[in-house]
Amino acid sequence: MTNQIESYVIAQFSDSHLFADKSAKHYGANVWQNLVSVLLDMAKRDDIDSIVFTGDLTQDHSELSYRYFADAVKTANFKVPVHFLAGNHDDKELLTKYLIAPAFKKDKTINNDYWQVQLIDSKSSTPSGLVNQESLQSLTQHIAKSKFQLIMMHHHPVDIGYYIDKHGLLNQDEFWQTITQLNESGLNIKAIACGHVHRASQLSKHQVDIYTCPATAMQFGENKDKAGSIIPSYRLFYLKSNGTMSSEIITP
Fold first, then answer.
1. What CATH code is carried by the domain that includes residue 91?
2. Helix (H) or strand (E) holding 94
3. Is the distance from CB of 223 to CB of 207 less than 8 angstroms?
4. How many domains does the structure of the chain reveal?
5. Is 62 helix (H, G, I), strand (E, B) or coil?
6. Range of the domain at 24
7. Residue 2: inside a domain
8. pLDDT tens, 144-189?
């Protein structure tokens, strides 16, 4: 009799880009309706163990957009924790003010018997990302040596080949030096998941898989002035007890 391979399922959604006006559109997409569609679809699933929002809640930086986001998550009535990160558009104080328990969890580490997920802050004073020394030290200090690792962040830590790369992670070399050193020391960082790019893709660097999340708002096209799609999506991760993982994109 073989042992059953268990899976811990994480739903990642990202980049809602809300306005104070629920009827406002971003690149032709009604971002409020798209967010509600994604949340309701996730709420119907009974296999999700944790949910992570990887930033860019707001587009117009209005306080009302944070209130709307919090209300939408509460209305979805999730039975699992909802964790969150700041994106480059977000105000951390407003996130803390509105994204509160019981719907939200402020913890930046998620643990199950086999996997540890760490949420890393990449927000800087510009649209580009920066994982500062404090965040790198936190990653090093809190990583569980006995578990497989998934890191989640807002900005993408590798270039993906179109204009959003100018707003990627500024200190890529330093970041990857830390990741490589940790893995060489016997740790097990399997993958990195990010938002920000408004597209779904899978890449690899230094034997670490990198997953980008489609946006709930809309998907970017090849140039800054045109959307690729106004249909929202989100990503599911299946973290398996044997250390393997798989992922799929869900479009409501």
1. 3.60.21.10
2. helix 92-98
3. no
4. 1
5. coil
6. 7-250
7. no
8. 889 999 999 999 999 998 889 999 999 999 999 999 999 999 999 9
